[in-house]
Amino acid sequence: MDKLTAYLVKKGVLKDERVIRAFAENPRYKFVPERYKDYWYVDEPLPTFEGQTISQPSTVAFMTQALEVGEGMKVLEVGAGSGWQAAILSSLVGKGGKVYTIERIPKLYEFAKRNLRDKKNVEVILGDGSKGLPRKAPFDRIIVTAAAKEVPKALIEQLDEEGILLVPVGVGVQRMVKVWKKGRREYLGEFVFVPLVEE
Ligand code: SAM
Fold first, then answer.
1. φ, ψ for residue 113 (rounded to 5)?
2. Which pLDDT does position 198 carry in this prediction?
3. DSSP string computed for 75-143
4. Fewer C-beta neighbours within 10 Å, C or N terminus of the chain?
């Protein structure tokens, strides 16, 4: 196990055995840009390109566990960035599952695509993900890794009947909102993300 995963377990952030394994299979140093390689294990967000970030490891751990991803699920991520979150999701859904991840900035799309080239169950898509990916809906899980102004209705519509959406909502500081297709909502604390660009 790499030292970042071990730290997150020791800190008590990573608890779920399947998620711990998924983190250990996808060490963060494979997803951090070359100029920040020395800092890959630090529990802080790091810059990627064009003012964007690879999220804080504690946040990725928290969100991944909150999403309750099972083997064989179809998952949509909005905000591919470095591809690290998508790689972790790829391990969790396994061979029978599928992960779609959308990125709007071409340079980051290329970066994520390269970092995820060995993941057969991941498709990286260039474009605006703020309205989801209707042509591949419904999804078992949707995770948004950028800050939305409000819970995007289009994403709720693209959930399966048993589906769950996880999205940070707010300007400046965000509340993490867990939304069940069936109507229930939970608020899971405060985080800070780069904005979801809604075109
Ligand atoms: N999940 C990423 C990872 O594992 O590295 C980190 C995501 S970063 C915090 C947020 C990303 O969302 C940025 O790369 C940004 O370009 C992207 N983004 C923002 N608005 C978007 C949109 N409407 N559609 C797709 N991607 C978007």
1. -60, -45
2. 87
3. EEEE--TTSHHHHHHHHHH-TT-EEEEEESSHHHHHHHHHHTTT-TTEEEEES--TT--GGG--EEEEE
4. C
Cα of 79 vs centre of ligand 1, distance in Å, is 3
**Residue 188 pLDDT class (50, 70, 90 cuts):** very high
Question: Any idea what the Cα angle at residue 177 is, between residues 180 and 193, rounded to 5°?
Answer: 140
pTM equals 0.97
Instruction: Give me the mean pLDDT over the 103-108 stretch.
Output: 98
Domains by residue range for the chain, with CATH: 3-191 (3.40.50.150)
Ligand 1 pocket, 103 CB below 6 A? yes
